[in-house]
Amino acid sequence: MMLLLDTHILLWAAAGTLPKAAEKLLLDIQNSLFFSAASLWEISIKKGLGRDDFAVEPEILRRGLLDNQYQEVPITSLHALAAGDLPQVHKDPFDRILLAQAKTEGLTLVTSDKIFRKYSGPIHFIPVGKR
């Protein structure tokens, strides 16, 4: 599978606190792993706001992802248009662009965020609390 990891999955991977189900997906050599420029943007903004749950250095995270063969998905105008076509389930622009990227690029979004259960699309849910 081609997997686009949401921001919290990336943060948990960097911290070594992935839920078991996510760890299994990421370690499966049959899967190709992707991260979005939007996740690094979100981390940069929220780290700058002093959020403790976004304490990782985005530059170091990006370098680590690339060094470990993750592929970066840039944000394009097609992604922006697809985000605008999503149902108005919630207003978080980072979540919306991640889902739009997954749909547009033929990727499966890996997330633990329950709000995504309200969307249709290529989404793989990771239960939290099982680390």
Strand content: 5-15%
**Weakly predicted, low-confidence segments:** none
SS-based structural class? alpha/beta
Number of helices: 6
Question: What is the helix content?
Answer: 40-55%
Total strand segments: 5
Major beta sheet summary: 5 strands, parallel
| Highest-level CATH class | Alpha Beta
- Terminal CA distance: 22 Å
Mean pLDDT across every amino acid position: 94
Question: What order do the strands of the largest sheet run in, or round the barrel if closed?
Answer: 3-2-1-4-5
Counting copies of identical and different chains, the oligomeric state is: single chain
- CATH architectural designation: 3-Layer(aba) Sandwich
Q: What is the CATH superfamily classification? A: 5'-nuclease
How many domains in all? 1
Descriptive overview:
- Helices cover 47% and strands 15% of the residues.
- It has helices at 7-15, 20-27, 37-48, 58-67, 77-85, 93-105; strands at 2-5, 32-36, 71-73, 108-111, 123-125.
Features:
131 residues; single chain; alpha/beta; five-stranded parallel beta sheet
